Amino acid sequence: MRNTVYGLKRLLGRKYRDPQVQKELQLLPFAVVETATGSVGIKVNYLNEEHVFSPEQCLAMLLTKLKDTSAVALQTQVNDCVISVPSYFTNNERKALLDSAAIAGLNVLRLFNETTATALSYGIYKQDLPAPEEKPRNVIFVDCGHSSLQVAACAFHKGKLRMLATAADPHLGGRDIDLILADQFCKDFQTKYRIDARSSARAFIRLLTEVEKLKKQMSANSTTLHLNIECFMEDKDVHSEMKRADMEALCDGLFQRVEITLRQCLEQSGLALEDIHAVEVVGGSTRIPAIKQIIEKVFHRSPSTTLNQDESVSRGCALQCAMLSPAVRVREFSVTDVQGYPIAVSWDASGDGEAPGEIEVFPVNHAIPFSKMLTFYRREPFSIRASYVGNVPYPDRNIGIWTVKDIRPTAEGKAQKVKVKVRINLHGIMNISSASLIESKESPDNDVPEEQQKINENSEQPQNETANGQPEEGEEKKEKKKKQIVKSVELPIESLTFGFSQVELNQYTEQEFKMIAADRQEKERADARNALEEYVYELRGKLSSDDELGPFVLDSDRETLTRQLDDMENWLYEEGEDCNRQVYQDKLTELKSKGEPIQLRRLEHDLRPAIIEEFARALQLGNKVVEQFRAKDPKYAHLTEDEMKKVEQTVVQSYKWLEEARSQLASTPKHVQPSITIAQIRQERTNFENVVTPIVNKPVPKPESPPKETKEAEKEVGDNAEQNQQQTNQNQEQPQQNCTQDEKMEWSST
Ligand SMILES: *[C@@H]1O[C@H](CO)[C@@H](O)[C@H](O)[C@H]1NC(C)=O
Ligand SMILES: *[C@@H]1O[C@H](CO)[C@@H](O)[C@H](O)[C@H]1NC(C)=O
Ligand SMILES: *[C@@H]1O[C@H](CO)[C@@H](O)[C@H](O)[C@H]1NC(C)=O
Ligand SMILES: *[C@@H]1O[C@H](CO)[C@@H](O)[C@H](O)[C@H]1NC(C)=O
Ligand SMILES: *[C@@H]1O[C@H](CO)[C@@H](O)[C@H](O)[C@H]1NC(C)=O
């Protein structure tokens, strides 16, 4: 309980003293500390030592696990991915998630809003979406899950979707209902049993689990339902009950917030109720009848459940990943997302008296990804700050500070024209991605007065998007002025933004790799230990059974070996509990050296009769050939007397060997290593066939000159001979060969 980390989504990219973090900590059973830099440190026991990891590192561990699971399932390396984020995630939280992915060695093609992922998994399969010139199909998506509520309005056309608006309540989900109900039961237990369930983390977690089950039952059943937990605390069993109406009364405040969020999205989208085609619900908590009723109340239609409630987000991400990856071809579907929170940039006064300024570069619901060019006239380096405008669900509205360097006045002492590209990328992260000095050598038509130090906004229109949703870089508009020789010089930018530095990232990545290696080593160690343990049980069980290995070992030997196995078992649970892999492997090898000869005797005993039988049958066939030859069977007319003598002799010799072997083996007790092994019998048979087969299979010569292949075929034995024979047949078309071939099939039937 104290070493199982979860709930990282709500800790990511935040400071320890962040009110949201402080609220979460009251619910989390593991230890969280404030680090020297004020960030969140998760304290866990790892390899018997106390370690403090950041939420980003812990999430990287989870991603590593998911990556591994996917790689096993897909039977291929996984590098590229699309990761979903709540649509209300701010710049820093997104940045933190990208850092986690970097530590896990994943290449993130896109951070994808959960709402947008859901919309994509809805739209891509719809064949009947309106054509581009028609009115769009507007769909509302309501996603209420474990800990948050997200609502989105989305416009669909054939092959594309455009987000219209989103609204969210980041602290409203199933678990908030559970907490309210758990609180109620705590009060009840306090009066009934005089126990404080909150004083024991373990008891409280059990209560939450039971409450969640009860909540699900209440969704389907409006009668009074019971909650029973055995041996809850202080050896007391507890009982209580609740019905749906009670739950709805207790959670009324939460449900009101659901309504507020729904109305907010509707209002922002600018849609009239009759413009809405459907309200699709996903997320476990939308199964709650009260939430369904609020949806009906706000949108005047019953929610539709055509999407998979639990998987639509992951499906949307998988589809987006396939679209963005060059390795896969999928139906194209363009995705235009919108900016959740307006972003403004501001700058200081310039040296020569220009006032400081601010501009809202990305208003709310502005399409993204997007770039804007800002033009400045400066004599010296200057800084640009970016921050959110208005309320965001994050305590710090600042996004970053960028300093554009290396600016000097012109030779005439005038200000230089500097163009700065402000970009919000596919992940929803803002950046000043470039700055350049525009030197106009000669500009007769340029009537922009240099004193008028104003911000020019270029590329105000959304960038055209490629069909698969990939953004085109916002390209600087070409200067329209004629005869103007423009030279553009890249300026260095120094940035101060949230997230790990490259050095830190490298360090954490290395640490993660070490942990992956340690995990692998630990798995190999555990596998070796299990293999030894398994062998001990298996061998001991078989030794004691008369149907298995019992008869194949001398009683006294069995007792000794069984004792050794008992000792080994005890050792495994005592001093041998925690050894390294090699120790277990060596012990296993040692045990096998004793167990395997016994197992081998049993195996020889079991397989031997069939092998002897096959050999005997081969000898009979040899005899038959000799008889047929003597009876002047035309099939063997092409063979000589000498050849047939050789066959006969070999049959006799082999038969003698086999008879001797049989009697010798019959007199060998089961627990004694047989003097003649199956391998020897097989070898003897091969020797026999090497002599006999080429003679018997000798092709009938053609009346004229025999083809060369025949000679080659003669040398061949076994399966190769059969193949050659077939080839020869094809070449020569001699019907008689069919018989020989049949014969041959029997020879090599084993
Ligand atoms: C509701 O729960 C009660 C009590 O457990 C049970 O008897 C009843 O069959 C349930 N009704 C439905 C519709 O599940
Ligand atoms: C959706 O994701 C993008 C990044 O892909 C982000 O910029 C935007 O703010 C998100 N949309 C909403 C409505 O939050
Ligand atoms: C911001 O832009 C700079 C310059 O193009 C680039 O090196 C940097 O990686 C970008 N940062 C982010 C977070 O995209
Ligand atoms: C694409 O760009 C052209 C001209 O640059 C513009 O007329 C058109 O409306 C744009 N299309 C979209 C979908 O933005
Ligand atoms: C031999 O085999 C060939 C092709 O498989 C067949 O056409 C032919 O009739 C067979 N001849 C005899 C004698 O069975």
UniProtKB/TrEMBL annotation:
<dbReference type="InterPro" id="IPR029047">
    <property type="entry name" value="HSP70_peptide-bd_sf"/>
</dbReference>
<feature type="compositionally biased region" description="Basic and acidic residues">
    <location>
        <begin position="705"/>
        <end position="718"/>
    </location>
</feature>
<feature type="region of interest" description="Disordered">
    <location>
        <begin position="690"/>
        <end position="750"/>
    </location>
</feature>
<dbReference type="GO" id="GO:0005634">
    <property type="term" value="C:nucleus"/>
</dbReference>
<dbReference type="InterPro" id="IPR043129">
    <property type="entry name" value="ATPase_NBD"/>
</dbReference>
<keyword id="KW-0597">Phosphoprotein</keyword>
<feature type="compositionally biased region" description="Low complexity">
    <location>
        <begin position="722"/>
        <end position="740"/>
    </location>
</feature>
<comment type="similarity">
    <text>Belongs to the heat shock protein 70 family.</text>
</comment>
<dbReference type="InterPro" id="IPR029048">
    <property type="entry name" value="HSP70_C_sf"/>
</dbReference>
<dbReference type="GO" id="GO:0140662">
    <property type="term" value="F:ATP-dependent protein folding chaperone"/>
</dbReference>
<dbReference type="InterPro" id="IPR018181">
    <property type="entry name" value="Heat_shock_70_CS"/>
</dbReference>
<dbReference type="InterPro" id="IPR013126">
    <property type="entry name" value="Hsp_70_fam"/>
</dbReference>
<feature type="compositionally biased region" description="Polar residues">
    <location>
        <begin position="455"/>
        <end position="469"/>
    </location>
</feature>
<protein>
    <recommendedName>
        <fullName>Heat shock 70 kDa protein 4</fullName>
    </recommendedName>
</protein>
<keyword id="KW-0547">Nucleotide-binding</keyword>
<feature type="region of interest" description="Disordered">
    <location>
        <begin position="436"/>
        <end position="481"/>
    </location>
</feature>
<dbReference type="GO" id="GO:0005829">
    <property type="term" value="C:cytosol"/>
</dbReference>
<keyword id="KW-0067">ATP-binding</keyword>
<dbReference type="Pfam" id="PF00012">
    <property type="entry name" value="HSP70"/>
</dbReference>
<feature type="compositionally biased region" description="Basic and acidic residues">
    <location>
        <begin position="741"/>
        <end position="750"/>
    </location>
</feature>
<dbReference type="GO" id="GO:0005524">
    <property type="term" value="F:ATP binding"/>
</dbReference>
<keyword id="KW-0963">Cytoplasm</keyword>
